[in-house]
Amino acid sequence: MTRQPASSEQRLTPLAALPLQEGDARRPWLSLTPAEAQAWLAVRGAPAWQAQSIRRWIVQRRAESFAVMTDLPGPLRSALETEFRPLGTTEAVRQQASDGTCKLLVRLWDGESVECVLIPDRDRRTACISTQVGCGMGCVFCASGIGGVTRNLEVGEILEQLLRLRNTLPASERLTHVVVMGMGEPLANLDALMAALGEACAPAGLGIGARHVTISTVGLPAKIRRLAEVGRAHHLAVSLHAPNDDLRRQIVPTSVGLTEILAAADDFFARTGRQVTFEYVLLREVNDRPEQARELAALLAPRPALVNLIPFNEVAGLPYRRPTDEALAAFVEILRAAGLSVKVRKRKGAEIDAACGQLRRRAAEPAPVGT
What is the spatial distance between Cα 275 and Cα 289, in angstroms, rounded to a whole number? Predict the structure, then answer.
């Protein structure tokens, strides 16, 4: 039966009530290293090159069953079906907004879940993905961090978010961009993220251009410098959310000082030549005042930076509100008058659980009595 997209009004089934593949000990094929895959094939008398053939079926040709891999011998397909699963995740919930934004709640092998989002915009198809179950950074406005961080995602779990989002597109369309701005702090799981993006950007993978990937961080200076050393052409986005340390500690309790964060961002630019984006979530009457805009301008004006202003996407149960249109316009005008490049993020998926962590949080709530 074909899964129907969820509407914004759909009552979500609590995660605890969703079927889990209990007793299914089959390993996801994407979790195998090339050496492991080739060794398994060798035992069955199959050539080593078929390891890549199987992977191409899953990554490039959207296969979610070994049965469709018709260029493989039948006995091999049967053996694969017995011992492996093409993908280790399952789609628990899908929400579709009228603007085309599609949000998935993806269930992992251990029953945990993460969110990922497909954002269409003209000829772009951008995937926003998660790197951790939950988040340990403690940003007070973010639903992802409620409850803290549970664990890092594995390489395959990161890659599979891209595959599942890609598989929602028509066969003629592909993912063009990736933003690593979902649940979790990406640089806290840097090794797994780099491995997943390596395959996503490879011509034999999803073929996404390395320059079309943006990695967002709350500001981990040592990891920012390490990202620069990796030598990838990815963009860096640093979440500031405040123009001074006192206010930032209220909004991002685990943060280090702005001086140290900006020094690491400057090092990233000097080493890579890639312009750094500074993200700033605007919270009404918290960090959206004209004096705070002037302070932010003074902090960033010497840098060839882009400021990405993000009007808060309101989350049920949190006390913060979206800034007024007047406050947003004044903030933008002050930054631009100081010579800064400013972009205001478009609001997407307004009628679904679009803010990071909302869908996972709502799906985890107990079902109402009598339902």
Answer: 26
3-class DSSP state of 311: strand
Distance of CA 134 to the CA centre of its chain: 12
> Which pLDDT score is estimated for 25?
82
Predicted local confidence at residue 350, as pLDDT? 55
Q: 335 phi and psi, to 5 degrees?
A: -65, -45
- Interhelix angle 155-166/190-201, rounded to 10 degrees, is 40
Catalytic residues: 115, 356
Q: Which residues contact 213 (CB under 8 A, 6 or more apart)?
A: 177, 178, 179, 180, 197, 200, 201, 232, 234, 235
Residue 320's φ and ψ, nearest 5 degrees, are -90, 150
Residues 93 and 351 sit within 8 Å (Cβ to Cβ): no
CA geometry: angle 111, 116, 311, nearest 5 deg: 130
Rounded Cα distance between 241 and 288, Å, is 10
Query: How many whole angstroms separate alpha carbon 234 and alpha carbon 224?
Result: 12
Token representation of residue 201: 């950007």
What does DSSP assign to residue 308? E
Which tens digits make up the pLDDT trace of 295-305? 999 999 889 88
Q: How far is CA 236 from the centre of its chain?
A: 14
Is the pLDDT score of 114 beyond 90? yes
Burial class (CB in 10 A: 0-12, 13-18, 19+), 23: exposed
Task: List, for residues 232-261, the tens digit of each pLDDT value.
Answer: 999 999 999 999 999 999 999 876 899 999
Which stretches within the chain are classed as H helix? 34-43, 50-59, 74-83, 155-166, 190-201, 221-230, 245-251, 258-272, 290-300, 325-337, 358-363
Which amino acid belongs to residue 273? Answer: G
What is the structure's pLDDT at 1?
A: 33
Alpha carbon separation from 188 to 136, 164, 192, 246, 289 (Å, rounded): 9, 23, 10, 24, 32
74: its two tokens: 């039948």
For residues 29-43, average pLDDT = 95
